[in-house]
Every structure is written in structure tokens, then in C-alpha cells.
Design a protein that fits this description.
23% strand; disordered N terminus; Rossmann fold; alpha/beta
């Protein structure tokens, strides 16, 4: 068994090696109805020459604005956590594009590093995902994306987002009692800025094109009863961090993992904290946001991220094909 696992892991790492396919990148503005346009980062296979490119506070080896390499590729949409942006999971996006996927990551309007005025607008987040999928399958590089092969990755608030977009209906009436009992929890601190009584009125947009999910450390996990998760019948790869002090697994991850109607492929990242699901920070990002860049002493975030990305690539390849 160990030999088999070693071979599988080595094969997955090969997809992430410098010999893997070159990656194109573009930052687009995508329409969101009457709302402000969405900023969306796009990673995709390309045959163009790449070079180190500064994108925000990160540098990646990509071909800016290059044409897509082929047609009929699978699409993965990425949903970042509270206060993040399109680049929050850039390493995971790059690994997926090197493996042959098109990846689209929106900066969620009103819940990003510049503006958190709509941090409780969960319904709006699901609308963003639908708008991004619409654009990618209908208007971006015609024929490049296969509308029948669409998956989603979500971290923290993004995990909540992709579950809701896949058909889950969180019971938001549970937030009030939860936050009364746990007022110091991070999620309750964020939600304390809004009228919790208005949350149950939110409208979630479901996208039936979603075929598979990767969910890491989902926010508001306690709102996902088994009944709330009944419609999420697609394959799910599920991740939790054993030392997550932001969203403790007992209250957030575990209810989702045990409530899904189809048992997920479950992983526990031992000794990891909440933000270790994001890639290692550049020096500039570490200066700008030290809280999300600090791991526990002795925890190798770069090594974990390589393993994490390899597992995500493997799972999504099995579910959606190359």
C-alpha cells in the first residue's frame, strides 16, 4: 500500500514540475448584472513562452494574455475566504492549470482585502460563481471550456459558497444561537457587523453545472444540517486543519463532513492552522498581512502546499478528466 501511495504521489507531483504545461494568465472584468463587475483571475494551459510576472503581491511564471492551448478543457472556479481576493489560492490555481484545467477565481465584491462591507452576503457570493461560470463557458475563448466538466474549490467562506452553489441550503437561523454561545469566534466577530436576523432571507443561486467540489475549512459549518446538505450528491474532497483556531473543526468542519449524503474523500491536515490552506506568502504579502502568513513553529507550509495541491489535482482529474 505504501508503495502504491508513493507512486500516486510521485505522479501527482510530476504534474507540478517545471516540465508540466505552460500556463497563461489574464485578469478580467466580468459582468455581474446591475452590480459592479467582478475582478477574475484566469489561469489556463497555453503553448506560449512564460516568464516570471508580478501579479499583485505575488510572482508567478506565466504567459500574460496568451491564447489558450486547446479546446474542451475542464473548468474549476475558486472561491476565496473572508477578506481575500482572486490571488488568494494562486499556487493551487497554477498547479491545476499546469495539469490541464482552466481556473477562474473571482474577487468577491464586498468581501475582499479592500472592502468587507458585504462580508455576510453569502447569496451574493453564489451569484458571483454563477456569473463566472456563465462567462467562462459562453464567452471566454470560445470552445476552450467544456460546460459538462465544471468543478469548484472553496476555502473558508469560499467553502460555504461552493456548497451553497452546489445545492446546499444552510440554516442561517442557527447563527444567532451559535454566536450567543460563542461570541468570540471569528465568524461571529465578522457577522457582528450586520443584523444577524436578516441573514435567513438570503437567496442562494444553485448551479447545476457543478460536478465536483473541493472544500477546505468551510465557514458556518454548523448551519449545514444533513437536511441542508441533502442535494450535494456529487463527489467532494474535504479538508480540515487539526489546529484551526479560526474555525475549530468540531463546530465548523465536522458537521459538514459527517452531514454530506455521499461520504467525502476526507483529509485532516495535521498540525496545520486555518491559513495553511493558502500558499506560502511572498515577502511583500507577509508584510501586508502577517496574520495569514504565519504558520505554527515547525510546520512547513510550502511542503504541505505541494502535497495539498497534488491531492487536489489528483481528485479533480479523476472526477473531471484531463
Amino acid at each position: 500500500m505504501k508503495t502504491l501511495l508513493a507512486c500516486l504521489f510521485a505522479g501527482a507531483l510530476a504534474w507540478l514540475s517545471p516540465s508540466a504545461g505552460a500556463v497563461g494568465f489574464a485578469m478580467l472584468q466580468i459582468a455581474d448584472g446591475a452590480e459592479p463587475a467582478l475582478e477574475v483571475g484566469i489561469w489556463y494551459p497555453s503553448d506560449a513562452a512564460t516568464r516570471p510576472t508580478q501579479i499583485g503581491l505575488l510572482s508567478q511564471d506565466v504567459a500574460m494574455g496568451a491564447p489558450a492551448a486547446r479546446r474542451g478543457m475542464a473548468l474549476v472556479v475558486l472561491s476565496h475566504g473572508n477578506g481575500g481576493n482572486a490571488m488568494s489560492h494562486a499556487q493551487t490555481a497554477l498547479a491545476l492549470a499546469q495539469a490541464g484545467f482552466v481556473v477562474a477565481a473571482p474577487t468577491h465584491t464586498g468581501d475582499n482585502h479592500r472592502d468587507q462591507s458585504r462580508a455576510a452576503d453569502i447569496g451574493g457570493r453564489t451569484r458571483h460563481l454563477v456569473a463566472v461560470i456563465d462567462h467562462m463557458v459562453q464567452r471566454w475563448s470560445p470552445g476552450a471550456v467544456d460546460a459538462g466538466r465544471v468543478g469548484a474549490f472553496g476555502f473558508s467562506s469560499g467553502g460555504l459558497t461552493v456548497l451553497a452553489a452546489a445545492g446546499a441550503v444552510p440554516d442561517l437561523s442557527l447563527i444567532g444561537p451559535h454566536c450567543a454561545e460563542h461570541p468570540r469566534m471569528y465568524a461571529c466577530q465578522v457577522l457582528g457587523q450586520v443584523n444577524i436576523g436578516t441573514l435567513p432571507a438570503q437567496i442562494f443561486m444553485r448551479d447545476a453545472r457543478l460536478r465536483v467540489l473541493v472544500v477546505a475549512a468551510p465557514a458556518l459549518g454548523f448551519t449545514f444540517t444533513p437536511a441542508a446538505l441533502a442535494a450535494v450528491t456529487m463527489p467532494v474532497q474535504f479538508w480540515e486543519a487539526s489546529d484551526d483556531a479560526i474555525l475549530p473543526p468540531r463546530l465548523y468542519a465536522d458537521p459538514v463532513r459527517t452531514g454530506l449524503p455521499r461520504p467525502p474523500e476526507a483529509h485532516v491536515a495535521e498540525r496545520a492552522g486555518h491559513f495553511d490552506f493558502m500558499g506560502p506568502c511572498s515577502e511583500a504579502l507577509a508584510r501586508a498581512a502577517p496574520a495569514i502568513c504565519t504558520s505554527a513553529p515547525g510546520f512547513d507550509r510550502a511542503a504541505f502546499q505541494a502535497r495539498f495541491n497534488a491531492e487536489v489535482v489528483r481528485f479533480l482529474t479523476a472526477a473531471l478528466g484531463r
